[in-house]
Amino acid sequence: MTLKDWIRRLTGAAGVEYRLAQRDDAARDAIEQLVKQSALLASQGAQLAEDNVALRRELTRIEQRLGHVSRFGVAAVWHAFDRIDDLSPPTRLTCLACGVADAAGAFARTEDQCIFDGGRLIRHGCPRCGCVFGATKYLTLPPAIIDLDYTQLYSGYSESDSTESEIRTFRALDPDKSGRYLNWGSGAWSAAIDRLRAEGYDVWGYEPNAGVEHPHVFTAREQVTGLFDGIFSHNVIEHLLDPAAAFGEFGSLLQPSGRMAHASPCYEWCYAFTRFHVFFPLAGAPEALAARTGYAVTGRVDDGDFRVRVFSRTS
User: Fold this and answer.
1) Which residue of 132, 244, 256, 282 sits 20 to 30 Å from the alpha carbon of 99, by its own alpha carbon?
2) Is residue 185 domain-shared with residue 309, that is, in the same domain?
3) What tens digit of pLDDT does each residue of 92-131 get?
4) CA 16 and chain centroid, separation
5) Which range of residues forms the domain containing residue 125?
6) Could you say which of 154, 177, 200 is where a domain stops?
7) Which parts of the chain register pLDDT below 50?
8) CB atoms within 10 A of CB 164
9) What is the pTM for the complete model shown?
10) CA torsion through residues 259, 263, 264, 265, sign
11) 131 with 125: CB under 8 angstroms?
12) One-character DSSP codes across 23-75
């Protein structure tokens, strides 16, 4: 091998080593850049996580402040109503069940406090049928205000799942799969309609206040058309501001042979701590209301807090 060949071989090897070294340096630089970028991303991620925590805390504080403002507004309004009631108490009362009218002093008086910041709840007991009704301040409110009050309530409150109790109430009608049925005040916290329809029953719901979106639930009264073989409700009758008028309305929706089943624990004196409960059909009140509106009480269930009265049309 000549000297030139040795020189060429040596310089070629050195060039390869140099190029390999350059590649190693580039790889190290790339790794270092990746490490730096990863560290930067980790730092940014940690900052974002801290920002999210801070944002959640601020949102929680805002929600709490809004809740306090809402509670203050509700409490202040009902305090004002209580003061007005003190200045101008009712002098005559009419029982919501039997319709007897008399001086306010002829009715027994009870007082409770509303757990929903509704102030004092003064109710009266009918000397004839035993019905307890009120608070009077609530019964005299315009319907539009009451609708707003329910909307305000359900914006931050929901009932517990009442599916099984609603189905049990429905069965009190002794239903037939060829009939058509309406769940009045069906709420947004029950799967009763879906369950009963899956069994083959033609069941519909009506719920104007709880913000329901369901293909078989009417949300406006004008949507409820046609006649039904039965109407049932669960924890609704105690909310009726004018039960006689409501029973008349139910009659306009029922077949001549139709029946109703209304479930409520308030057939006995209980759950008096809310302004939304205005009608307590105790003692003979269900029979008095039925006789006054063209029905008869033809069935009843009393099983703890699950209580049902079945009403059949007589006219």
Assistant:
1) 256
2) yes
3) 999 999 999 999 999 999 999 999 999 999 999 999 999 9
4) 78
5) 85-154
6) 154
7) 6-7, 10
8) 13
9) 0.79
10) positive
11) yes
12) HHHHHHHHHHHHHHHHHHHHHHHHHHHHHHHHHHHHHHHHHHHHHHHHHHHHH
